[in-house]
Each structure stands twice: as C-alpha cells, then as structure tokens.
Amino acid sequence: MKPTKAQIESFLAQEHIALAGYSGKKSKFGHSVYESLIKKGYHVYPVNPKGGKTEEGKEIFKSIDELPGQVTALVAVTRPDVSEVIIEKAIEKGISYIWVQQMSDNAKVLELLKDHPHFVTGQCIILHTNPTGFHRLHWWVAKTFGLLPN
User: Fold this and answer.
1) For residue range 110-119, what is the model confidence (pLDDT) as tens digits?
2) Which of 41, 58, 104, 113 is the most exposed place for a label (fewest CB within 10 A)?
3) Beta bridge partners of residue 119, listed in sequence order
4) What distance in Å separates the CA atoms of residue 75 and residue 10, rounded to the nearest whole number?
5) Please, what's the b/e burial string for 18-54 (b: 16 or more CB within 10 A of its CB; e: otherwise)?
6) What is the CATH classification number for the domain harbouring 22?
7) pLDDT tens per residue across span 3-60
8) Residue 110 domain boundaries
9) 3-class secondary structure for the chain?
C-alpha cells in the first residue's frame, strides 16, 4: 500500500522516534537511518536486543517495552518476521506513528497496521528527510519516475 504525502508528513512531524533495527556498525542500514534522523534534529531512541550504548553514549533499548513515554513514533528497519513482533509491541505500548521500512513488512505486518491510523510502509525513510549523497540520487530517481507519494 503506497502511503500518502500527508501520512509521511504526519510521521515526520514527530520529534521522538524509536528506531528498531539500530546497528552500531556504520555499514548497516540501521546505522544510516539513525545518523540521518539525528542529523535532521530528531530525538532518536535506538532499539536492539543486544542493548548497550551508541558510540556517543546514548542508551540502546533492548525492547519496545523499555522505551520512555515521550516516544510517539517508531521506524522498523528489521526482517519482516521481527517487524511483526515489534509492531505488535508498539501498538500495545500506544505508539501512534509507525514507519515500516521498505522490505521490512509482510502480510502479517500489513494486517496489524490496516486499522492503525498513522502508518507508512513501502518507503525509505531517508528519502523523505532531505537526503544527501547516494540517497539524494535515489530521491531524484524516485521523483523523476513518479515513485514518491502524492
């Protein structure tokens, strides 16, 4: 299901965003998303079952249940089977805005989100946060070929 521009803008208006699938390895996409959101001024709460600290000393939460109450949004950058569990936990916790990174969803995830008012699937979050470098080229290609939501 292709999201609307309004759904994307509504998600991006949130200030406190959890990132499930965070990785401390700079070569991993979860790290790229983390850095991109931090650079854009978001308060990002990394989630990874290993826990620990980021390189700048921020806590890495082991689960959705550990997230503080001010978190209103979640980005899932995980395998689809992991996304299923994460989305269920996020909905139980009352997280209102959910973004499931392209290729991180499946039929069960879509079923979980069908009645959820604020969700985005099938899109790369970096494309929608004023990308730079390679992601800027990716954005240009998506715009040129009409692949960005209206």
Assistant:
1) 999 988 889 9
2) 41
3) 98
4) 14
5) bbbbbbbeeeebbbbbbebbbeeebebbbbbeeeeeb
6) 3.40.50.720
7) 888 999 999 999 999 999 999 999 999 999 999 999 999 999 999 999 999 999 999 9
8) 5-144
9) CCCCHHHHHHHHCCCEEEEECCCCCCCCHHHHHHHHHHHCCCEEEEECCCCCECCCCCECECCHHHCCCCCCEEEECCCHHHHHHHHHHHHHHCCCEEEEECCCCCHHHHHHHCCCCEEEEEECHHHHCCCCCHHHHHHHHHHHCCCCCC
By mean pLDDT, which of 35-39, 103-107, 112-116, 142-146 is the weakest? Answer: 142-146
Sheet of strand 43-47: strand arrangement: 43-47, 16-20, 73-76, 97-101, 118-123
> Which tokens go with 80?
């689809």
Measured in degrees and rounded to the nearest 5, phi and psi for residue 46 equal -70, 140
Helix (H, G, I), strand (E, B) or coil at 112: helix
**Would you state the structure tokens that stand for residue 20, as one six-digit string?**
């499930």
In a domain, 149, yes or no: no
Into how many domains does the chain fold? 1
Token output for 150: 């209206």
